């Protein structure tokens, strides 16, 4: 999980900016301490969420470690470009080069902040929304859709009652507590003739209904297409709905060239499944068909 830190570059950066001696290995130690902290965050998240999210957490953690190392090494390269005025002295100091160096430092720091954002992504995996990784995603989306449609119907009914009676009291679709909250909200509204539920609330809810419907349609269409996978010469493509993965199973270990092609198309080796796999999406289907060695189907022998 650790990536290499350029200690030589770190020493040069220190020498260009300080009179103090560089402590050998200090840059690597700092990097590894941050990686260890990230590992702890990832492990805590794994304990909180369903195991189906673990692979994604591991992917993000690996990305964080690699990007952080690259960011460290880039910072050392930048810091060594122009010595500080304290080291170089004011005479003929390259002001323009220093300005460029500072601009590069700012960009590198911005990238560092983005890298730290990966940890926030890890912390959020499996705790919000409905992931496509979830084998019960369609059922959950349908439940959410039903709730949204019920809310839409209720908001329309309440607005209709208000238009007819000019008041919310006695509305059969509302509890007394909800009536009081809506009244308070309407009293604070800047509009001349406020409604219990303004048009934007209905429009936003309707847009979410359309989005959820589209997502359900896309997922159901994906399940219908290539539902049983196929055999190819030397293995098979499997749609594993239980773990929501498109898997490629080989009869023998693929050669180095094919392994590189698998990786370039987003497939990773999963020892627990004895398969090369990626999340089952439309993009996964497009990707597997780009791999010539596995895209050609072998017709079943009917004899």
Topology record:
Elements: H1 7-17, H2 26-48, H3 54-79, H4 85-88, H5 95-124, H6 137-165, H7 176-188, H8 199-224, E1 230-232, E2 235-240, E3 245-250, H9 256-264, E4 268-270, E5 275-279, H10 282-290, H11 292-295
Antiparallel strand pairs: 1-2, 2-3, 3-5, 4-5
Helix pairs in contact: 1-3, 2-3, 2-5, 3-5, 6-8
Order of helices and strands: HHHHHHHHEEEHEEHH
Which overall shape is indicated by the principal axes computed on the Cα atoms? flat
N-to-C span: 51 Å
In total, how many beta strands?
5
The helix content is: 55-70%
Query: Radius of gyration, Cα only, in angstroms?
Result: 29 Å
Q: What does the main sheet amount to?
A: 5 strands, antiparallel
Q: Strand share of the residues?
A: 5-15%
Instruction: Point out poorly predicted stretches.
Output: none
Structural class: alpha+beta
The overall pLDDT, averaged over residues, is: 85
Major beta sheet, strand line-up:
1-2-3-5-4
Explain the overall architecture:
- By secondary structure, the protein is an alpha+beta fold.
- It is 61% helix and 8% strand.
- The chain is built from eleven helices and five strands; from the N terminus they run H-H-H-H-H-H-H-H-E-E-E-H-E-E-H-H.
- A five-stranded antiparallel beta sheet has the order 1-2-3-5-4.
- A hairpin with a 4-residue loop joins strand 2 and strand 3.
- The longest helix is centred in the middle third of the chain and has 30 residues, at 95-124.
- The protein is flat.
């Amino acid at each position: 999980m650790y990536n290499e830190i350029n200690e030589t570059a770190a020493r040069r950066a220190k020498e260009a900016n300080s009179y103090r001696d560089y402590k050998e290995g200090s840059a690597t130690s700092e990097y590894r301490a941050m990686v260890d902290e990230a590992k702890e965050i990832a492990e805590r998240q794994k304990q909180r969420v369903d195991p189906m999210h673990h692979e994604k957490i591991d992917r993000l953690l690996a990305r964080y470690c690699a990007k952080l190392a690259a960011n460290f090494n880039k910072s050392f390269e930048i810091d060594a470009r122009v010595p500080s005025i304290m080291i170089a002295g004011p005479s003929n100091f390259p002001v323009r080069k220093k300005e460029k160096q500072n601009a590069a430092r700012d960009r590198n720091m911005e990238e560092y902040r983005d890298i730290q954002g990966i940890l926030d992504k890890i912390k959020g995996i499996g705790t919000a929304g409905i992931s496509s990784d979830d084998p019960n995603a369609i059922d959950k989306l349908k439940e959410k859709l039903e709730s949204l449609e019920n809310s839409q119907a209720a908001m329309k009914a309440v607005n209709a009652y208000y238009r007819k009676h000019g008041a919310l009291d006695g509305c059969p679709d509302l509890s007394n507590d909800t009536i009081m909250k809506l009244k308070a909200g309407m009293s604070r509204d800047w509009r001349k003739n406020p409604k219990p539920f303004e048009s934007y609330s209905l429009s936003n809810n309707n847009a979410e209904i359309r989005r959820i419907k589209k997502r359900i349609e896309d997922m159901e269409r994906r399940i219908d297409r290539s539902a049983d996978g196929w055999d190819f010469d030397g293995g098979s493509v499997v749609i594993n709905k239980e773990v929501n993965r498109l898997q490629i199973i080989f009869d023998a270990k693929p050669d180095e060239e094919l392994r590189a092609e698998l990786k370039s198309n987003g497939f990773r080796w999963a020892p627990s499944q004895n398969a090369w796999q990626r999340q089952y999406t439309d993009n996964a289907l497009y990707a597997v068909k780009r791999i010539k060695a596995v895209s050609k189907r072998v017709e079943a022998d009917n004899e």
